[in-house]
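Chapter review: from sequence to fold.
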Amino acid sequence: MAAPIAPTFTNLNRFRGKVALVTGGASGIGRGILEELCREGAAVGFADLDPESQNFADELNAQGHKVHAWIGNLEDEDFCKNFVDGAAEHFGRIDYLVNNAFSFTAKSHDATEADWHRSMFVGPVAYARLLSTAAPHMQKNGGGAVVNISSISAFIAQPHRWTYNAAKGAVHNLTKCMALDYAEAGIRVNSISPGWIWTRETLNAANLDGGGPEKWDSIWGEYHMLARCGHPVEIARPVLFLLSDDASFITGTDLPVDGGYQGMGPEGLGRTTVIAGTE
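The C-alpha cell string follows.
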C-alpha cells in the first residue's frame, strides 16, 4: 500500500488559540483531521459513538494537546446540541466545525424505513443540526469556517447504494445552501469529496474479500488516476486548508480529493499510458 507523501511545510501556529469540532474524530478520516488540527495548535472537541474513544482523547492530552471527547449518537438531536454547547462551554469558543461522521448504510430496494432514517439523520440532518447550534458561537468570534465531508458517491451512481449516495448527494447541495445563508455572518461553508480512502470500512471490505490492503490497493486504485487509494491524512490537509484563512475567499464549493476518480472515464487505467512524451 503506497504511503502518503510527507508534508514539506507545516505552520504549527496556524490554528493556535482556535477551537475546532470534529465528528467521528476517533477513527478514519475524522481521526486524521483531528490529529492534524492538534499538530497545528488547535484545541479540539470531538464526538464519537465508541466509548473507547475517550482513551484516544486521553492519549492526545498526555502529549500536550487540548482535546475533549463527547460520546454519543449523532442521530439524537439532544446529543448534537449538548456536544456543541458543551464544547463552547468547555473551551470558551468555537471557530471551526468539521462534519465528518456519517452512517455507511448501503442499501437499495431492500432499504427499510430505519435504514433511510439513519442514512439521513446520521448524515445531512446531523450536519444541519450541528451547524445551526455552532453558528451563534462562531458569530461571537466574528465568524468561522465549516467543512462537510461529502463523497464521490454524491456525484455518481454505484450499485446497491440508494441510501448512502442519496444522503451524500444531499450533503453536496446542503453545503451550498449553508454557505449562502451564513455568508453574511462571516461563516464559510465548503465540502470535500474523498475518493476511496483507507478507513475502517475499506479495510473491512478488503479483509472480507481476502488479501488485505497489500492486494486491494492496486486493484481499487484502478478507479483513480493516481492508481491507489488515499490515506486519511491526505483528506485532513485539504480540510485544514479550507478551514484556514488561506481559503478566505472560498465558500459554497466542493473540493474533490479523490486521486482523479471523478475526472476519469470508463477507459480508466487500461488506456495507453504516456510518460515523459513516450507512448
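Two observations follow directly from the output. The domain at 19-196+231-264 is CATH 3.40.50.720 (Rossmann fold). The beta strands are 19-23, 43-48, 67-71, 96-99, 144-149, 187-194, 254-257.
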